[in-house]
Amino acid sequence: MIVAFFLQANIVIPTFAQSPDGFNYDESRISAYSLPDLFVSLQGQPISSIHQWEFTRRPEILRLFENEVYGQVPRDLDHIAFKLVSEDKKAVDGAAHLKEVDITVARNEREITIRLILFIPNHKETPAPVFLLITHRGHENIDPTRQQKSDFWPVEQLIANGYAAAAFHVSDVSDDHKDTFTEDLLERLYPEQLKMENGMRGLGAWAWGAMRMMDYFERDPDIDAKRAGVVGHSRGGKAALWTGVQDTRWAITVSNESGCGGAALSRRRFGETVKRINTNFPYWFTDNFNRYNDNEDALPVDQHMLVGLMAPRAVYVASASEDQWADPKGEFLSLKLGSRVHREIYGIPVDLPEKLPGVAQPVHLPYIGHHIREGKHNLTLYDWERFMDFADQLYAIKND
């Protein structure tokens, strides 16, 4: 076991001895805790080489997350088809090629269809790198007509910077609602998962959907699928992290304010807790996760290990100064501790600062990115600009 470091922050964040609803927002009230060691196998074997990591430790950590937290992500399907249902080669005032693509997946003589919205920059002569947004917010935030525009998905800015902008809505695979989340993917294609205590639930279904988007990117000659990033905000950020862990085709995984069950360390019990998230959103995680309500220390994993599973690929964790429910410090600690895999196993020179970085002081290292934005829980143009800055740096490194 390794003892977590309580890093001092150099930003001003409001703290409260205890919130009115009984949740802790005071660093001084956090009890000492220990975290499962990334570099010791379940059999007690020290892990120090790439071979040991990839063939022993990584698989067993992945199985623990599948069994205890997110559930399985089934891979079997009978058929997948892609249909271009609409396109506009002069979208965004001529700057982009809009493609609306229906992705239909069949299994056991039943099928579901997911709509991909994709804008590709017209000024690029080579395949474009792409950012995919997993979104649970209103469909107006990903309006393909661009009559409604939102900084939540700033297509125009992405296109101007040479990136394709892609998005899908989680309701195509699993409604973000406890009463109807089973109606699409789970009931139609994988009903057996609903009977399993470690079966796929909402977040896993969203990750499965994002993986089907990657299946399409690999087939579109206008997209550089090897330079693809998956982005999620809040609950979408949790799904993005699980996507990046399950599917190694993604070059960058971006978690924006994903909090509990996302980037934040569960054992800190700061802001949202495992019990609260399981109570409010019982359809996100596998049934087994309920064992850890008010019992986080019994978890065989914590979220720094999720970050570690992404190595050697790139991980970006973003937070907001007023979003204490999502625990910005816990998110940073998870990134700092998890990125040890990048450094100690793969030899990537990443060394995040000891102190929590300040507001609007992004830290962009090789394959590891972080920033804290001023403001509340949201996904903003500032966030996207930092993601693009990081991707610019990453892809330049990879092309050297």
Q: Secondary-structure blueprint of this entry?
A:
Blueprint: E1 2-3, E2 34-35, H1 50-70, E3 79-90, H2 91-94, E4 96-107, E5 110-121, E6 128-135, H3 155-160, E7 164-169, H4 185-188, H5 202-217, E8 223-233, H6 235-246, E9 252-256, H7 274-280, H8 303-308, E10 314-320, H9 328-338, H10 340-345, E11 363-365, E12 368-373, H11 381-399
Parallel strand pairs: 6-7, 6-8, 8-9, 9-10, 10-12
Antiparallel strand pairs: 1-2, 3-4, 4-5, 5-7, 11-12
Your description of this structure?
- The protein is an alpha/beta fold and 400 residues long.
- The chain has a single domain, classed as Alpha/Beta hydrolase fold, catalytic domain (Rossmann fold, 3-Layer(aba) Sandwich).
- It has 11 helices and 12 strands.
- It has a 10-stranded mixed β-sheet with strand order 3-4-5-7-6-8-9-10-12-11, with helices on both faces.
- Helix 5 (202-217) crosses helix 6 (235-246).
- The longest helix has 21 residues, at 50-70.
- The protein is globular.
- The model is unreliable at 1-18 (pLDDT under 50).
- Its EC number is 3.4.-.-.
- One of its GO terms (molecular function) is hydrolase activity.
- InterPro entries: AB_hydrolase_fold, GCE-like_dom.
- Keywords: Hydrolase, Serine esterase, Signal.
- It comes from Negadavirga shengliensis.
